[in-house]
Amino acid sequence: MHCPSEIHMRVAKRILRYIKGTCSFGVKFLKCQELRLHGFSDSDWGGFIDDMKSTSGFYFNLGLVIFSWSSKKQDIVAQSTVEAEFIAATNSSKSSTMASKVIT
Known about the structure:
By secondary structure, this protein is an alpha+beta fold. The protein contains two helices and three strands, in the order H-E-E-E-H.
């Protein structure tokens, strides 16, 4: 802020153009017959060849809209597919607790 340059001005303009072009974007919640919270999780086992770590993923939807999701490398090396799935389920249950607190 104390020493702006031409690059800073170009970046600021680009950000403002992006915001202007995406003002209408968002999550649209439609009325549905059954408003339920559903969550799904999955993982692979040893998907990264370099360090043999697995990938966990999950998403949650409320009615017809997905509102929370994640896909990331697990922190530890799973010794089996069951352990990789357990880690994925644990991480998704932590997020579902946060999601249910937001909803209620």
